[in-house]
Amino acid sequence: MNRVSDPSPAEGVRQRNLARLLRLVHVDGPLSRAALTEATGLNRSTIADLVGRLVDEGLVEERAPDPARRVGRPSPVVVADPRVVAVTANPEVDALTLAAVGLDRTIRLRERIEVDHLLSPDETATLIADRITAWRAGDLADARIIGVGLAVPGLVRAADGLVRNAPHLGWIDTPVRDLVAHATGLPVAVDNDASLGALAEHLFGAARGVDDVVYLNGGASGIGGGLIVHGMPVAGAAGYAGEFGQNRPGIAASADRRAEGGVLEDEVSRAHLLEAVGLRAADEPTLAAALAAAGADPGVAAELERQRRILATALANAVNVLNPSVVVLGGFLATIAAHDPEGLRAAVAAQAMDSTADDLDIRVASLAEDRLLIGAAESAFADLLRDPTA
């Protein structure tokens, strides 16, 4: 039996340097060769050789230097090739949202397919495959699709991508990764939606450059969370860390409780907000606009205040345990926070230990409704970024 030999030490170093350069232009955006030389400590001829290899692999492009830069020798600008894309999907109880995300972080295509029933895993795989086929015949005719990334609202086993439990979708021990791979013929990565949202906001959004972050995501299926500790995502032993929505917050006023013995996502709920503004379903911008338009309505204002009080208690518990420097809120939680950001921070600080709340910053997810899709793209790009020549 033939075996592929391990790379020599020199080849291993070259592979790591290629991965380092590709990751730099992916995460930081267009960079000149001079900037890459400074960032890596490698010499100019080595950078030129590595960039040339990435160009040959179809992963980056070199563009003319900025004409406004008149000091010193002009240096070509290296950019991730926008034709290298990941197709990403976020199945929810009311819709399947898909996107084509470029290696240069652009959203080339985005589509929301609303449904009036719970998507089955097989239907989800078929819809994704159908959209890829259609996109390849149209807007993605020039694209190199690296793989598919799925952001699932539920527990996803890190070892093999098995969806152990997505309760709102009714998926139990479902091999979604294998189903989508079979339907599309592409490599597939699956992870919890909130964990991917945390990764995206840490790399590109509101928590960029922050080492200790608590992220909470509010979606149609409830509330999930993600953690960044010392700059690294924390998944837990099996990949299930961050399920803040299943915690039971203390609720001081009995009138605030909607579900006896309920967990956080039973009380702080997108469904309650939709009901308050008289909508059956809506995407995030539509819900935010409806809440803003109904801001003077006493019932809507009361529901927002009720949810903000309970959310503040849950956040205070997280701050006491994890001592983050930044809390990022996404989805409908971002909408709740945006109605009174200073009031929410004050309510959290009032219930947290003084020391943990001293420099706490609560931020709204800056990637907005693209955060989960961008995070899913990161999971699809992971192998490529580890080894650009594989």
From TrEMBL:
Domain (HTH marR-type): residue spans on this chain: 19-70
Coiled-coil intervals, chain numbering: none
Pfam families assigned: MarR_2, ROK
Molecular function GO terms recorded: DNA-binding transcription factor activity
Stretch forming the signal peptide: none
Domain of life: Bacteria
InterPro entries given in the database record: ATPase_NBD (IPR043129), HTH_MarR-typ (IPR000835), ROK (IPR000600), WH-like_DNA-bd_sf (IPR036388), WH_DNA-bd_sf (IPR036390)
PANTHER family on file: BIFUNCTIONAL UDP-N-ACETYLGLUCOSAMINE 2-EPIMERASE_N-ACETYLMANNOSAMINE KINASE (PTHR18964:SF149), ROK (REPRESSOR, ORF, KINASE) FAMILY (PTHR18964)
Similarity annotation: Belongs to the ROK (NagC/XylR) family.
Protein name: N-acetylglucosamine repressor
